[in-house]
Amino acid sequence: SVLYKGVNALKNALACLVILPRFLVAAFMLWCLDFLCVRRRVLFHLRSEEEEEDEDPPLCISDSSRMFSWESLKAVFHGHKLDWMKSARLGHDAPNSAVVPLAEPKRRRVLDFARAQRPLAFQRLVLQYADVADALVIYIEEAHPSDGWISSDAPYQIRKHRSLEERLSAARLMAREAPGCAIVADSMENSTNSAYGAYFDRLYIVQDGKVVYQGGRGPEGYRISELRHWLDQYRARLRDAVIRV
Known about the structure:
Layout (H helix, E strand, L loop, with lengths): L1 H32 L2 H15 L19 H16 L12 E4 L6 E2 L10 E2 L12 E6 L24 H14 L4 E5 L4 H6 L7 E4 L2 E5 L9 H21 L1
Parallel strand pairs: 3-4, 4-5
Antiparallel strand pairs: 1-2, 1-5, 3-6, 6-7
Helix pairs in contact: 1-3
GO molecular function: thyroxine 5'-deiodinase activity
Protein name: Iodothyronine deiodinase
Function: Responsible for the deiodination of T4 (3,5,3',5'-tetraiodothyronine).
């Protein structure tokens, strides 16, 4: 309807105004990072800070990757907008968005993969916590497609997905790196990416239909150490409960 379109347009306009200041800061940082002397110094500083948490993936930028470009600005703006407009909020109901399993391209829902009261964590690390939690990896749109903000040192060159089959094929490449972990693809409407503000990447834990852990927006906010800490505490609480009984 006309009213719905009008409300949606106003919501998008408000989102653009809200995220504009931090987007401009991010754009300035990208411009600075195109100077190799700045890039190397920044990366050295970030890596020295991350040495204590070895499992957190470091920010890696090759010298040949251009940071400030029209494609990079579009990607960063897209990520900021999704983050602001996401419906997933800590302590609130987890969005039950549509996903597609790799083996059978028939739509399912994110919470279909949750079992009873067990936490469902969107990261393959949870295979190490299979006694207390389940793992689910959701493959979303490419952050660095070969026909967009390309990454020269990416292991695979994948173009922007033009069909569900292309997205599933790319997700199967990820499945090779995470054997034994449940991997699904986002719908072509990007419903999960939009609901969870997952672009470029993000960590979540859902339990009893609620978001109980929400990581920062990747790559800089992608902290596996935080996810592990939450799961360690949860496992300890379960053990304490058993001891009391």
